[in-house]
Amino acid sequence: MQDSLLKRFGVSMEDNLLRKFDQLIKQRGYENRSEAIRDLIRDTLIQQSWEDSKQIVAGSILLFYNHHQRNLLEEMISIQHSMHHLILATTHFHLTHESCLELIVVKGRVKDIQQLNYKLTTLKGVEYGKFTVAPVEQM
Fold it and tell me: Could you tell me the maximum CA-CA distance found in the chain, to the nearest angstrom?
C-alpha cells in the first residue's frame, strides 16, 4: 500500500448528533474526531466490499448453541466438512452444561462464506450467530 498524504476536509452536522459522536469518541478512547471518522469510513468501505461477491475476505463465524439439540452437532459438522475449503480453524468452548460457543475462522469469497454462515446460523438449536469479515487485500 502506498503512503498517502493526509487531506483535510470539513464536516457539518447538527449539535445533538455531534454531542453524541463526541460521547462515543470519549467512550472508545479516540484521541480526536479524525481518528474516529477514519475508522467509520474504513468500516463502511469494508461493509461495501461485501457487495462484490468475488471479493476475498477473512473473518469469523461465531455461534452460540445448545449442544443438547437433537442432531445439531452432526448437522454442523456435515456442513463444515462440505465447505471445508473455506474454514481455516475452529475452536469450541463449553460455556454451561447446555450452551457452547464455536468460533470458525474463515477465508474465501464473500458469497461462499455468507452461504456457510446462513447454513450454520439457521440450524435449529443455534441461538445466536455473528459473521464478521474484513477484506484480505489492503484498503
Answer: 58
Residues in the chain: 139
- Alpha carbon distance 93, 102 (integer Å): 6
How confident is the model over 109-134, as pLDDT tens digits?
888 998 999 999 999 999 999 988 87
Summarised one tens digit per residue, pLDDT across range 66-124 is 989 999 999 999 999 999 999 999 999 999 999 999 999 999 988 899 899 999 999 99
Q: Are 61 and 117 in contact (CB under 8 A)?
A: yes
- For residue 17, the one-letter residue type is L
The DSSP letter of residue 97 is: S
Q: What is the pTM of this model?
A: 0.68
Locus of grid cell 484498503? 139
* CA 15, chain centre distance (Å): 31
